[in-house]
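User: Hey, quick favor. My workstation is busy. Could you predict this chain's structure for me?
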Amino acid sequence: MTPAATVTDVGADVETPVAFRIGGRIPIRNRVFAAPMCGASKLPYRRLARRHGADIAYTEMVKAYPLVRDDRKTKELLVTAQDEAPCGPQICGGDPDTMGRAAAVLEGMGFPLVDINMGCPVKRVVNEGAGAALLKDPAKIEAVVRACVQATTVPVTVKLRSGWSHQGHADAVTLVRAAEQGGAALVCIHGRVRTQHHQGAVDFDAIARAKQAVSIPIVANGGIESAEDALVMVRETGCDAVMIGRGAYGRPWLFRDVARALTGRPALPPPGWEGICDIMEEHLEGMVALLGPVGVRLYRKYAAWYFRDLPWGAHFRDRAYRASEPDVMRGLLLEWRVHARACEAAARAGERPPVPGFLVGDPRAADPFPARPGQDEDDTCE
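Assistant: No problem, here it is.
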């Protein structure tokens, strides 16, 4: 795998002071975290997030029971690299004993912290009494956190939601207090309740009240798609840092933009398409190096996110979803680079962007921005 540039190259600044430390140990400077996202937060993505300024990039959520059983596929999700340190592993489960044993496994693997998922809204996870199911039982939240804290010597953090629903269940204040009482060193709050999944307004007030109720750092998550969104989140909630999930799909430089805004550094111009194409190729090669040909198939969704912002990008996306071999995807990315250059040249000349070669004479070329299907809510546990 091509060595990634250091984190200071783009997003961070060695002169930026430490804003706070997780558990008194892990320094946080930029005040921006990369969310754990099922199917997305693999090593190459995390390395890009770190290089662009995320203080910590979390792994995909893994279930505690398979982890303590030494399940091979589970441990493959936890492959990490030195240049992304510190990396935060996230575990999910509802049984305190199993969660404690899983936390000990993660510490034994060399991770500097353990994060607990208490917010995943996906039905199959909730039905197991894990993820967002814990939002209905503050006592269980405290017990699970305490079991992990007692089983490890590293900081234990929690990611939860502002509640199970808007009425009839514990609010964010009660939930974060339970986590703090269990020994959590930090809590991240997704400002939507479980029944909202990833839709609807983020509840700034719930996060703000939770922040005032505890002494540990609070990280706010939900709806951050720009540096301005992050500034609004901090202003409205008083949070110590923000966490970015879906907003960075196909835009890892969003971590850079947010990091600079939150630390008072001047904004940088958006990356040009040459730079974006370089990132796309680096991401693909990282997936291939990590997983072989399987990495190409898993890269398809990343390619679709990168392709979305230029005319006829959806047609490139459709081709990407049919690619299974590294050289096929590499060829497609080369075509995309040529297309991006042509679009940029046309924009400078005030002309209509040219139709990509594979669509010349195709009736589909008449619509450069066809409608895209909505994203499946079960696609991610962020």
